[in-house]
């Protein structure tokens, strides 16, 4: 009988380009240091150490990303082709890191020693234990490593050059977010409900992603995006296995983006999660998800674009319209911004559908512009407070402009940017994306985009009217200033203004990043 | 054909063990009929009908189970590496040390934060 095992020959050692992967490794390393701080540092020092580790990690990773970007023209695959390091990826990663740093300002915020996160997550809401933990001044400092792990996943997700790496990144990014969603300090039941909904729907969509990956593996014999592209051009695009795989994979990806009809989680989660975390999810997670969508559709399925374009057309149109129309009926400010984020996902998809260099560069620009405005807007929301925490209901915002003109004015500016009014980054971004879509022959899509922008402008302007032209409430919310949040608002407003008034440098940066497309 | 004989033998042994254990249990096990025996079998937590108003079930079982899985996976990676150690050389050693350090960080956290204390 022949032996069933084979004598092992020399196993080729894989080589890993640590230098090119350093931004990701720094962030994940900082997260590990954060876990050790939790384990070893005394309770009183944990908060300071955690904030220090997080900020240093994010800044170092960003500096390294810049260094990679201005070094030799980045166009490499790293880690045996599992990760791509190229212009668009570095642009996306840099954007994620800056936005994460801004969100970190909100996450680390302490108003009168009051963090936005729960004192002890394991206590039942409303129980004596909860009160005890509040009185004892406990803080859940695990949030910092969790945020860093999530950011690490977000950095890998748009860089992943094969579907399995992408799936691992998806989970690394999602699992901490599910948990963090449930850790709000106020309205804890709502927060926990959001976490459970996000987790269940997210797990469901992960299964779709994995199923699609399996189908595409069955078709191409590889999970690598370049091999899938090669198999499509060799075998043609009519294989049922391929089409089913593309459809299932798209469900998984579009869910993370919150595109209709997979948008149901977004309003609940954005409303329930602590606002500081909503800022992170609405900016960084969206950037990462769109980055992943861009890579899959530009690298893996580019040759199949005549087949997936009709599907994406339908999704983009539906997303823009659902986001813009349903937002009109919202009475909670975070929920309204969640629907606004859905609509913006639709605008971003028009850039994806263009499948040309202009589409890529305009989507990159849009992502950066939208991210800054979003973090700024959510930062303002954390500042406007009632006795019981943030003033979520829109009616509470009535007349804020008369009592706090600066804060209300900044928020109005962000809303105008969301609406795409000239002299804000929102206008430049929308203009660039629609121009690329028109060049890509998607005129009807652009028309729907403009119409839904007009619909969306209605509810943004309605909030502005509410803030400036109605009588202030007698017991209206107060505005709590603090340096960290004010910095986040200021940076958001500054970038929104600069990208609207002199967009050329940033547009040029996005164009040069997109110049080489994604590495295969 | 000979190649598949070990698989068939393995399957037969597994089947024999499973069936054998159940039969042996029914012969040798004590038969006490009480309330606990009639309850649904759930591993580590209280069976499903929770007290009205939201009961809480102990989480310590999950902690132990999760730790077990972490180390289980560590072993799964360690074994093939140990077998092929000579072929992987320094690279393999460095990567494995990195992997073990990552698992140890999680272990240190659980240990320091009292996750290993049952009561």
From TrEMBL, chain A:
It is an enzyme of class 7 (translocase). InterPro entries: NADH-Q_OxRdtase_suN/2, ND/Mrp_TM. The chain crosses the membrane at residues 20-40, 47-70, 90-108, 143-160, 196-220, 240-265, 277-298, 310-329, 336-358, 364-384, 405-425, 445-469, 481-502. It catalyses: a quinone + NADH + 5 H(+)(in) = a quinol + NAD(+) + 4 H(+)(out). The keyword Ligase does not apply. It is found in: Cell membrane; Endomembrane system; Membrane. Residues 160-455 form the NADH:quinone oxidoreductase/Mrp antiporter transmembrane domain. Keywords: Cell membrane, Membrane, NAD, Quinone, Translocase, Transmembrane, Transmembrane helix, Transport. It holds the Pfam family Proton_antipo_M. HAMAP family: NDH1_NuoN_1. PANTHER family: NADH DEHYDROGENASE. NDH-1 shuttles electrons from NADH, via FMN and iron-sulfur (Fe-S) centers, to quinones in the respiratory chain. The immediate electron acceptor for the enzyme in this species is believed to be a menaquinone. Couples the redox reaction to proton translocation (for every two electrons transferred, four hydrogen ions are translocated across the cytoplasmic membrane), and thus conserves the redox energy in a proton gradient. This is NADH-quinone oxidoreductase subunit N. The gene is nuoN.
Automatic annotation (TrEMBL), chain B:
Keywords: Cell membrane, Membrane, NAD, Quinone, Translocase, Transmembrane, Transmembrane helix, Transport. Its main location: membrane. The keyword DNA repair does not apply. InterPro entries: NAD(P)H_OxRDtase_bac/plastid, NADH_UbQ/plastoQ_OxRdtase_su3, NDAH_ubi_oxred_su3_sf. It catalyses: a quinone + NADH + 5 H(+)(in) = a quinol + NAD(+) + 4 H(+)(out). It is a multi-pass membrane protein. Its EC number is 7.1.1.-. The keyword Transit peptide does not apply. The chain crosses the membrane at residues 6-27, 61-82, 88-110. It is found in: Cell membrane; Membrane. Pfam families: Oxidored_q4 (PF00507). Belongs to the complex I subunit 3 family. NDH-1 shuttles electrons from NADH, via FMN and iron-sulfur (Fe-S) centers, to quinones in the respiratory chain. The immediate electron acceptor for the enzyme in this species is believed to be a menaquinone. Couples the redox reaction to proton translocation (for every two electrons transferred, four hydrogen ions are translocated across the cytoplasmic membrane), and thus conserves the redox energy in a proton gradient. NDH-1 is composed of 14 different subunits. Subunits NuoA, H, J, K, L, M, N constitute the membrane sector of the complex. This is NADH-quinone oxidoreductase subunit A. The gene is nuoA.
């Amino acid at each position: 009988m022949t032996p069933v095992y084979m004598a092992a020959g020399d196993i080729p050692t894989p080589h890993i380009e640590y230098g090119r992967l350093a931004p990701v490794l720094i962030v994940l390393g900082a997260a590990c240091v954060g876990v050790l701080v939790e384990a070893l540092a005394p309770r009183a020092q944990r908060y300071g150490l955690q904030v220090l580790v997080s900020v240093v990690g994010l800044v170092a990773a960003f500096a390294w990303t810049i260094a990679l970007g201005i070094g030799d023209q980045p166009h490499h695959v790293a880690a045996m082709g599992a990760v791509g390091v190229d212009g668009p990826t570095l642009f996306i990663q840099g954007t994620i890191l800056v936005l994460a740093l801004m969100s970190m300002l909100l996450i680390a915020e302490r108003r009168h020693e009051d963090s936005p996160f729960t004192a002890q997550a394991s206590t039942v809401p409303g129980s004596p234990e909860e009160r005890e933990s509040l009185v004892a001044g406990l803080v859940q400092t695990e949030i910092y490593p969790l945020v860093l792990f999530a950011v690490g996943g977000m950095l890998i997700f748009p860089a992943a050059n094969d579907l399995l790496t992408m799936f691992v990144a998806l989970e690394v990014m999602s699992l901490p977010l599910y948990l963090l969603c449930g850790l709000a300090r106020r309205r804890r039941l709502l927060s926990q409900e959001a976490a459970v909904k996000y987790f269940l729907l997210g797990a469901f969509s992960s299964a779709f992603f994995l199923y699609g990956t399996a189908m595409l593996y069955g078709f191409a014999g590889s999970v690598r995006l370049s091999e899938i592209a090669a198999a499509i051009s060799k075998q043609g695009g009519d294989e049922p296995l391929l089409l089913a795989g593309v459809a299932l994979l798209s469900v998984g990806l579009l869910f993370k983006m919150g595109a209709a009809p997979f948008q149901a989680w977004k309003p609940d989660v954005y409303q329930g999660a602590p606002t500081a975390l909503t800022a992170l999810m609405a900016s960084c997670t969206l950037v990462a998800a769109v980055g992943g969508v861009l890579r899959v559709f530009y690298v893996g399925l580019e040759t199949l674009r005549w087949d997936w374009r009709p599907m994406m057309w339908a999704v983009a149109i539906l997303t823009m319209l659902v986001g813009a129309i349903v937002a009109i009926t919202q009475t909670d400010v975070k929920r309204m911004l969640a629907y606004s984020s859905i609509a913006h996902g639709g605008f971003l998809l028009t850039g994806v559908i263009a499948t040309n260099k202009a589409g890529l560069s305009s989507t990159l620009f849009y992502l950066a512009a939208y991210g800054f405005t979003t973090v700024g807007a959510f930062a303002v929301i954390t500042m406007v407070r009632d006795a019981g925490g943030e003033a979520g209901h829109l009616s509470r915002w009535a007349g804020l402009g008369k009592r706090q003109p600066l804060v209300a004015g900044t928020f109005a500016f962000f809303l105008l940017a969301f609406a795409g009014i000239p002299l804000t980054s929102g206008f430049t971004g929308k203009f660039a994306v629609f121009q690329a879509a028109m060049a890509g022959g998607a005129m009807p899509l652009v028309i729907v985009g403009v119409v839904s922008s007009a619909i969306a402008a209605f509810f943004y302007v309605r909030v502005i009217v509410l803030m400036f032209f109605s009588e202030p409430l007698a017991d209206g919310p107060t505005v709590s200033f603090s340096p960290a949040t004010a910095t986040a608002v200021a940076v958001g407003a500054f970038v929104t203004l600069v990208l609207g008034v002199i967009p050329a440098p940033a547009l040029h940066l996005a164009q040069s990043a997109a110049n080489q497309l994604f590495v295969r | 054909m000979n190649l598949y004989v070990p698989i068939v033998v393995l399957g037969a042994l597994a089947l024999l063990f499973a069936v054998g254990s159940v039969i042996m249990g029914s012969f040798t096990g004590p038969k006490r009929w009480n309330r606990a025996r009639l309850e649904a079998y759930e591993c580590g937590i209280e069976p499903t009908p929770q007290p009205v108003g939201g009961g809480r079930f102990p989480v310590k079982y999950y902690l132990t189970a999760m730790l077990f899985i972490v180390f289980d996976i560590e072993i799964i990676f360690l074994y093939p590496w140990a077998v092929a150690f000579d072929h992987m050389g320094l690279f393999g050693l460095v990567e494995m040390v990195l992997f073990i350090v990552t698992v140890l960080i999680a272990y240190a956290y659980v240990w320091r934060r009292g996750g290993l204390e049952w009561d």
